[in-house]
UniProtKB/TrEMBL annotation:
Its main location: membrane. One of its GO terms (cellular component) is membrane. InterPro entries: UDP-glycosyltransferase, UDP_glucos_trans. It is found in: Membrane. Keywords: Glycosyltransferase, Membrane, Signal, Transferase, Transmembrane, Transmembrane helix. The chain crosses the membrane at residues 494-517. Belongs to the UDP-glycosyltransferase family. It comes from the Eukaryota. GO terms for molecular function: glucuronosyltransferase activity; UDP-glycosyltransferase activity. This is glucuronosyltransferase. It catalyses: glucuronate acceptor + UDP-alpha-D-glucuronate = acceptor beta-D-glucuronoside + UDP + H(+). CDD domains: GT1_Gtf-like. The lineage of its organism: Eukaryota, Metazoa, Ecdysozoa, Nematoda, Chromadorea.
Amino acid sequence: MTCRKTILFFLISILFQNSKSVNFLVYCPLFAHSHHTFLAKIADTLSEEGHNVTFLAPIIVQKYENFKYLKHTTDIIYIQPDEELKKLGEIMGSAGFSKYWTEEPSVFSMIPSIKLFQKMFHKIYENLRADLSILDSLKDRKFDAMIYEVLAFNAIAIQQYLGIKTLYPTFSVTHGMVLSKSIGEPASPATLSSALSPYGEKMNFQERLMNTVCAFIYQVFMKPPKMISYSHPYYEIDLKEAESKASFVFLNSNPYLDFPRPMLTKTVLIGGISVNTSQIREERLSDEYHNILNIRVKTVLISFGSIMLSTDMPDRYKSIIVKVIEEFPNVTFIWKYESDELDFANNLKNLHFFKWIPQTALLADSRLSAFITHAGLGSINELSYMGKPAILVPIFADQLRNAKMLVRHNGSISLEKQDLGNFEKLRVSLAKILKDNSFQENAEILARQLNNQPISPRELLIKHATFGAEFGELPSLDPYSRQMSFFSLNMIDIFLFLGVFLAILVYFLFTFLRLLLNLLLKKKAVEKSQENRKTK
């Protein structure tokens, strides 16, 4: 009898769960690894929770045609590119990011890439407008909510055509100042550095000036191309207004890791959602890696990510890294290096090369002592959750800000990329990170904070995503400040009024005092004149 009750309860639970499931559309053009993995993790998290998730993926860069980042979401709809989009994808795939090994990044260096992104996404918009059959086939699914990355602005046209009531903009970096402005969130360039700028939270005058110029250029001159709605009545789509009506905004930022800043209730920070420490610790390393990790007491991992390849760095940097490694014969080094041309390495016994590495599994292993990384946000999140000290060598884009963000937790050292060519500086930094136990201790403190935060990124995503899907737009979270003019919002009119009022007050006070002084002087003169008469 007890068994029957258990089975009945189980069946009722399944029916109840299915009745509460939400239909999500995750829109993710395939053009860059870090963007895909973030959106894929969001889709998988919602799928694991029992919701219906459709992953709509227009292909831009051909090498991502076989999308392997989704583990639980099975409903994937690919949109094949036409010849023009393929060419744009080829440009994107060979965008020449390796130039940043030698060129200095600036607030303007990402403008060509952003323009290319806009051109790619607008081309997808045009292709769908020419053939709406794919979108028409999705209408019967009656999606409750749509999730997309703000870079892919053409998602708004899809949302409006399919009549999806709830919109969730996301960003795979820590924040977007343009998005903040759209939803009415404080984003002063004096206190909030752009995610793509090389600045932290403490900026001098020159940095604040450049940050302000950068914010102005992105907001005024980097607007996406105009789009007309797919259905009647054909109207121009207002991207800023559409973003302002979003129920919530999901950002790849974590409040216990990132710089503190003022935010709205609708801004939900889910940074670290891609790091499942329990699953990562269950990952198994191959015998080859186990043998390497057992050779010496300490092991250092070197990787510069999937975009900035080690093979592309200047030969001088490579030779200096090898010379530094020679100075640490009692330390094992694992280097993610994408070529078989290894003549520069001098056949070092304590140096092992791999074209691909199981990064998360290595970071989770207690035998790994430190990580030398480019400070990409994915790597930052992974090493922070795993409590590993690191030497950060940011190259371009958000990596520079990410490095400043992590260094303040005192578990890592930040170097400039030019320091890879400075033997003594690199040697001293490596010796410090390996011998000073405070780096390991501080890294572990941060890891405990991240793994024990009151509400996990997963919970934040699920609860906010389902809440917004049920209630749609949430006008109560839309601040009136969004509609205020620049003068009113920044209290310029108040300061002008008070300034004029004080000026008038000072003028009348000065006039009164001058009149009073004149009366006193006149009275004193009269008294003096009377005294003179009496004396005579």
